Amino acid sequence: MQDKAIIVAALYQFVRLNDYRELREPLLRFLLDNGIKGTLLLALEGINGTVSGSRTAIDNLRGWFARDGRFNVLEYKEACHDEQPFFRTKVKLKKEIVTLGVAGVDPNQQVGTYVEPQDWNALIGDPDVLLIDTRNDYEVAIGSFNGAINPKTQTFREFPAWVKANADPKRHKKVAMFCTGGIRCEKASSYMLHQGFSEVFHLKGGILNYLEKIPEQQSTWQGDCFVFDQRVSVRHNLEPGDYSQCHACRHPLSAADRASPDYEEGISCPHCWDSLSDKTRESARERQRQVELARLHNRPCPIGQPQ
Fold first, then answer.
1. Among 165, 158, 169, CA closest to 200
2. pLDDT level of residue 305 (50, 70, 90 thresholds)
3. Distance CA 205, CA 184 (A)
4. Above pLDDT 70, what percent of the chain?
5. Kind of pairing, strands 46-53 and 89-93?
6. Are strands 221-223 and 129-133 parallel, antiparallel or unpaired?
7. pLDDT tier at 230, thresholds 50, 70, 90
8. pLDDT tens, 281-290?
9. Fold type of domain 6-93
10. Which ranges carry the Rhodanese domain (predicted)?
11. Alpha-helical segments (H) within 69-205
């Protein structure tokens, strides 16, 4: 990867950060000083986020984590992009780095069994394994593993209710879960162990790790993987996909979606055109106007771009 290329780094780690509030300002200053854009979340339970910058800048950030000493098992994935996918630099303080909303669930204390990508196909090929996609419905819609259950959640907060209604520790002896980069299924595994499930597995590094390491001809993945930046989706070997994203409802859009008469760039799409309020629609129109002005003057978009 050349230094002029943009490196997109997705990272997280569950680690006890008693001083996470005090970490915010020095970390933000470091990102700004190195020209790194994107968002990092800090909480008592750890760190999570996706950032982008030059090769040198991202290497400097990894050095910052190494010098701290606590981020020694950081789950970390890179991709190369030909333009900056983020417009702002943020470090946010949160109650959870991925919001499940259930007290007492702590992957720092209890977590399922990590499964490396090269061992994943054999695990999910076991007919006794309950395979669950822990992502949200709009993510699952563009790609998933063969045979995976889609809980059809709109947010991760809905996952515990789905488990209580559809999974049984006495009946489902083996449970395997996956998500984009590993963070949601790691926390979900902690939750399920908390609920009495005995054998709980999750894909280490998530779908992105699998797509990077497993050759396409050996893969059981079908479709694209949704990502939370302006690439919108990636495929095997983390090559960019063909999806864009609706800025009103955030749903990924295929070429067929964009050809629909219900699609209006930045304003609505076939998934939301008949459900948007007048206020939301007007806000989307103003946002799109600002986006077009920013493009015209070759400057970062000031508002509304998904991160």
1. 169
2. very low
3. 11
4. 95
5. unpaired
6. unpaired
7. confident
8. 888 888 788 7
9. Alpha-Beta Plaits (3.30.70)
10. 125-219
11. 117-124, 137-140, 159-166, 183-194
Q: Match domain 113-223 to its CATH number in 3.40.50.300, 3.40.50.720, 3.30.420.40, 3.40.250.10.
A: 3.40.250.10
Residue type at position 97: I
225-249 average pLDDT score: 88
Q: Which positions are catalytic?
A: 179
* CA dihedral for 268, 269, 274, 275, sign (positive or negative): negative
**What are the structure tokens assigned to 268, written together?**
């609505």
The tokens describing 132, both together, are 């669950």
Residue 92, CA atoms < 13 Å, CB-side half-sphere = 16
Binned at pLDDT 50, 70 and 90, residue 94 comes out as very high
Q: Which of 229, 144, 155 is nearest to 179 (CA)?
A: 144
Query: What are the Cα distances from residue 65, in Å, to 13, 251, 291?
Result: 11, 33, 34
Distance CA 206, CA 263 (A): 32
Q: In b/e form, how buried is each residue of 170-203, taking b as 16+ CB within 10 angstroms?
A: eebebbbbbbbbbbbbbbbbbbbbebebebbbbb
Helix H or strand E segment including 25: helix 20-33
Q: What is the pTM of this model?
A: 0.85
